[in-house]
Sequence to fold (1179 residues):
Amino acid sequence: MTAALKPPIGLSPMHDMHVRVGAVMVKQDGWLMPSRYTSSTEEADRARRSAGVCDVSSAGKVIVYAGDMDAVLKTAFGLDAAPGVLSAAWADGALLARMARDEVWALAPAGGAGHLHSRLAGDTHAVDVTSGLAGVAIVGPDAFSVLAALTELDVSSIGFADMTCAQASVAEIGAALVRRGADLPRIDLYFGREYGEHMWTALLDAGAAPMGSEALLLLSTEG
Amino acid sequence: MAVANPEARLASHPAQAIDRSRLVAFQFEGQPVRAFEGDSIASALYAAGVRIFSRSFKYHRPRGLTCVAGRCPNCLMTVDGVPNVRACVEPARDGAVVSGQNAWPSLERDALSVMDRFGWAMPVGFYYKSLYRPRLLWKAVSPIIRRVAGLGTVNVDSTSGAAYGHRNQHAEVAVVGGGPAGMSAALAASEAGVRVVLVDDQPALGGSLRYDLRAYPDGLGYETAHGLAGAIQSRSNIEVLTGATAFGLYEGNLLGVHQGSRLIKLRAESVVAATGAYEQPLVYDRNDLPGTYLSSGLRRLMHLYRLRPGTAALVATTNDEGYRATLDLLNAGVRVVALADSRPRFPHDLDAAMELQSRGILVLPSHGVVRAEGARNVEGAVVSRLDGGRLTTEEREFDCDLVCVSGGFAPAGALLAQDGAQFAFDPSIGESVPAKLPEGLFAAGSVTGASGLDDVLRQGREAGRSAATGGRGPATSPSPKAPESAAPAPASVAPGSRGFVCLCEDVTSKDVVTAIGEGFTDIQTLKRYSTVTMGPCQGKMCHRALASLCAGETGQPPDVVGATTQRPPLQPVPLGALAGAAHLPIKRTPMDRRHREMGARMIDVGPWQRPHSYGDPRDECLAVRNRVGIIDVSTLGKLDVAGPDAPAFLDRMYTHNFSTLRPGRIRYGMLCTDSGSILDDGTVTRLAEDRYFVTTSTTNVDTVEDWFKWWLAASDSRVRVTNVTSAYAAINVAGPSARQTLAKLTDVDLAPRAFRYMRSAEGDVAGVRCLFLRVGFVGETGWELHFPAQYGEHIWDALLEAGEEFGIAPFGVEAQRVLRLEKKHIIPSQDTDLVSTPLDSDAEWVVRFDKEDFIGRAGLVAARDRGARELLVGFVMRDPVVPSDGNAVTVDGFPVGRVTSARISPTTGQAFGLARVPASLAQDGQEVHVHIDGRDLPAHVRLEPLYDPEGERLRA
Fold:
């Protein structure tokens, strides 16, 4: 085995799209992700006014199957009141989106999949889908109309309430959606990574502006 | 024409749609046109003096504004490159570029109007009667016909496709129609607290009330319209889509709505159809001359756009509307030469009629219009006395420059019909009205046959409330019958060769009568033969006339004649709007960018894009055979099959055994359908006692996943199947130097004895955890590496760098296909078809008849007992000529089999491949022929693989 090897770096499926428009790429938790395209304050401002889209493919994603999901969520995450079907709840920094009675998507910041995995015990089946799914966050008051161009799911502010989740066809491909922001709407979208460029292009054409991780951080720390 | 002539406009009026303080400018046929804000393109052109707005479909007859509501085909123009735009409802906007259609050199002087003299050459059923013999005639003539006849021209070079987009919208209540009924329905639904979407195809809300100057208890008609529109504006839970056509109502209350460049898929819990009624034209000789208007069209022209439609008018009517229109014409300063009413009695109880009488207007009861005079526009009209509904020879001629007609109002029930509403013929109004509506569908306003504003508003309120509260409600409460004198008379059809039933496709009453005479007495076949109702208006202007002609000629009552099926779209929709933005979902592998950078020629493999080759596929083959090559196989389907019952489950799914497979080993597996035919193949690796890694062919992974889950759903097996295709990138490293290349990047012991063929291991490659599968699709020492997809480029780069000293080369799908063919490895669906089994596809060894049951066992037992009729064999051509897939294998000139794959072997230079041949010919060395380009060329059957038949290189 040769000695001088570059350390592996994870690339998002939209990597090429970011690089092509001159995004500033930074290493975060073993991934190379866009931190900003122009200026993070501008990007955040635009999201506050209309809609920004941020690549969050590096997020840790684990799909958990369990017969007695309520019990599993209580043991693993200390959740006394488990979210109902098609609802989401926060637990210790992870977003738990219950897609079905026996299926929860656990979403954590980048690098968090292993941590999520380790918490699970008992009669569960967990699949780390971090590598398989691309993710984007669509943030801003126009997030709903951007998505309405691409999905038949009722993604209006009323039809898709805060802390709810769903699975639907978006831009002709299967995707999971979680709404996780009330005042400043934020909808996270997860889909097969092979469709990264397709989805990114469709979202930009539908009116969302690219936004780096710095802007996303700015917006999320505002509360 | 240039500048709008101020003289053309009447004095300002509160009902007007135009804002004279704001000007817009656009271009028409290269000339500047100025318009007011609120003008339609057509109203602005009219003000500028344009009278000919289109040339007709076949005869190139001049046509002018008629309905002014976007219903008829008379003002279709090309706007900003988009053909067939209805200029009368298209708002005039700054910078628009407008031109006429189907005319040369211009609408005003169309040389092709000579076609009007050749009507005799174009009888009804033209395409059924002519140009079929000699056969080549059609080829010669059709390009000319296509040039001469028709509508606008699509610009095929246009790149404006991206401008089209789709939107999805949801509401509890969708109301179609922004007239009084629709507006009151929307308000009532909104008051119930639900989300409402109101769809209207006109530029502004109000429907016929917008240009209704009559006094009602709550004010003048247009004041009521403005009041309702204002109330709607103030409701935050009503979204209004104006200029939007609901063109179809589909299952589940899905409305297709076309608005400009957008297609809106509107899904509602309830739909209120307040679609109104279409005013009908009359059929008489030259009823299409410019200067002929529907009464509603005239009132739109006068009241909304304040245009003076002419100086002297003849009004012909079958109902009360003619009287009201006459009054409006008089008030606009137009002289009315006469009013011909087809009804026998003067309507004494109609205020408008009494006022006309007091103003000394000549009213002729029991009269119908026979013909118009003029060539390019109306110059006069002739009316005749009616006797029992039939025209007599007692004619009177009038000089006039416009003819205002009203043939009654046909309810616009198409949307209701599409959702399954039943209609009944109401003799009191002579129209079919909705009688029974399905759940979730409501109707209100004149589509139900209602007249009278009070009734219409009440119906709207009730329908809106019921729709919002989920009630079934009295959707079509019977409206009080109109007084007898107000009931419209059936329209007569006057003789003459230019009495158009169908303005869209230039079909005359004579044509329809001829078609009925030829035996097309059923309205559905009459429609198809004559093409009436099949043009851009989709029956809005012609269906009633067609039905009444059909009834008259065949002697059937109207309810027996019935109606043609009103399918969506009920208004033409641009294909671009239906197609939407050009977003074809394309799957890209994690190494996609690298392939493109290296100049790969990408091809579609199912939904994936894969490199066909990076240069010459032959060089790529030789690199793999002699040195080392890498291929991106990330597109392979990958399934994680886990759980205590996984071994038994796979035994049942596959023809082979997998419970006996030891962890760390790989076995080739074939999946069959219940009947034993091949579904897919791939490798199955046992990772642990209760966990397998299954690969499938690129395009079949979803089928296999579904197949597995379908069988699992019916059992209580503890097995989880997860599709991990997206999660793993995969690279096949193959060739004599594959081992040395990989060894530079990993600590895994790759020595032949340590890592044997068909074994697996886990280990790091260039710092990334990989699953190593030692398999050999291309027939060389090699490993398939599977690893997390985000490291695709990292591993690809590392391998190319490590292999540089050994002459490594990336290879594409084409080289892989050649290499596997040399090894006689089959590709399902390429070398097999729907009935192929493993027994006839050179894979009998994968079928374990000695194990219990498995999917397809019964079918395979039967196939075994029956014996194979044909077998998949290899063949080699005597000369290096490559047959195409599907070419026939022949014996004595007769086709007996077919080629499934063929290539030139880079190793031997021979043309060779796989073919299905009768079992009797499946003998090594058997002489056959292959039919290539009209010749039977010699070949022989070869049962062994062309390359490394013993598999020594594979195992090395």
Notes: The first strand of chain A starts at residue 10 and ends at 11. Residues 60 and 111 of chain A are 6 Å apart (CA to CA).
